[in-house]
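Task: fold both queries, return tokens.
Query 1:
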Amino acid sequence: MSYEEICRAVVSGNEAKVKELTKSMVDAGSDPLEIINQGLIAGMNIVGPRFKNGEMFVPEVLMSARAMSAGLDIVKPLIADTDLPSVGKVVIGTVKGDLHDIGKNLVAMMMESAGFTVINLGVDISPEKFVQAVKEHNPDVVAMSALLTTTMLSMKDTIEVLKEEGLRDKVKVVVGGAPISKDFADEIGADGFAPDAASATELCKQLIA
């Protein structure tokens, strides 16, 4: 029984195995933070680059992310919130009028596995709801997703409302989704654009470094 085994089970997306190994290691007195860092997150650190290189696909990555989350659920209650190192806080949501969430959830899972605290607002999120979440959670990054060309402009509206509320300078805004391009991100005044989940995580790390 080793961290390596948990790591491999995460990569292969074997949720039952991850749960079983995590429980055994907890029972054996392993350090919960080490289980997270050397087992669960180590697994996702392999998955991210493979996904980016086209060696793994969305369904497999989702399975790995779910397996990792299942392990985290077992370990999290054992550690005080203060011990969990967070690299930053992200509010993420799919914009108003858009109900697509697979890509957004994948981004959220990848960010969580990279150590971000993620507040996932869900789908069909209005500019006002994003602003409310910024006021409530005080995040480092607001991440918006859109899959329809018709909903892309809601990203621009959200940035405008953040400006009106005097919050724009307090957060970095990143956008993504099938119809979104770097040009569009620049045009609406976003801080960054990511073509996929692995890049989104890297982008956020760079923006708040």
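Query 1 returned. Query 2:
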Amino acid sequence: MKTIKMALLGLVLIASYNCKEIKKEAKEDLEAIEAVASEQFSLVQDSTKVSFTAYKTSEKLPVGGTFTEINFTNSNSGATALEALNGTEFSIPVSSLFTNDATGTRDPKLLEFFFGVMENTTLISGVFKVSADEKSSIDVTLNGKTGNIPLEVEKTSDDRYTFKGVMELEKWDALDAVASINKACEALHTGKDGVSKTWSDVAVQAEVLLQKK
């Protein structure tokens, strides 16, 4: 009988110990979940890089460039990166255009013969949008018109995201500007076929850094 009592006591002690361990592990798991849930993403404003690729000649040769300045307003924080960016407004001074042209002639031509023939192009402005199904896009205002650019999202690290899209300049009534820059750069935009061409689609890309609070 004594042996049975000792065995029962042992079982009770083991069960009690296991319950405490389970409760401890459950508490630790809950704390970990709460810690993750409490994390908030916010935009690191001076880390954003904006670039574009335009195209020339019938062969569609790429010509790349960047805007060295971008300003944000109405930036938020959120439980996810897209939630933090949703509703963020931006403006890009056109004067911050930089194409790294060794001759030093491309940037002035773009400012005069492309942006210069549009309306209200001191700034390119817009707002980042996220739909209910978490698809992202930007509304961009250029040449007095506002159009939408759907974006592809790529997470390149824990806190860095790349957004890519295509700007069809016809949406912004900017085909006159395309014709203007093509005329100004006629020889440079002439391909092997003898045709001078500047394409009206421009690839755009933004690299964004979001920090966790």
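Both queries returned. Flag for query 2: Residues 1-38 form one domain.
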